[in-house]
Amino acid sequence: MRKFLIIVAFLVIAAIIFAGCTTTPQPVPQPTPAPLPPTMVVTTPAQPTVPAQLAQYWVLTKMAIQDGTAITYPTNQITLYILTDGTLNGNSGCNNYNGPFTLSGATTPKGQGISIGPLISTKKYCAEYSNQESMYQNILGKAMAYNVDGNQLSITATTGDVLIYQIPSSLVTPKQYPPEG
Asked: Does residue 6 belong to any structural domain of this protein?
């Protein structure tokens, strides 16, 4: 019996020791995340849709330069094709060009607000047309307003210079570029 009491005492002591070694896990405190600063949402105003009357193929018929006091006529065909995706392209007499444009939606004394560029262009040199081509691209790159009146488009630059285009089918006597003969 003595053996029995020793075994029971040993089991009781072992149970006490094991019970003291096991503890209920305490939750570890989690740090509270710092509040996030308010999120700034930047919205870009939607660009006005490109009117169908503007999004067409145009042929330059004249340039009113020196604030519109001097009229010059192209000696080679100059074209402009305005697309509904906000880009344009054409041929400036010798070189092809293209670039983006933005309609501001504002009405100005010269028409509806527009900005064009930057324009990129091929780099062929055509001595006969280089001055005309440079003048044309310079005016087009400084566009500030456009106006469509039936089959005619005018683009006015910040310098006061104006480019005047026609829809090809509306030209009374279509020119051959370069002139035949």
From this structure: no
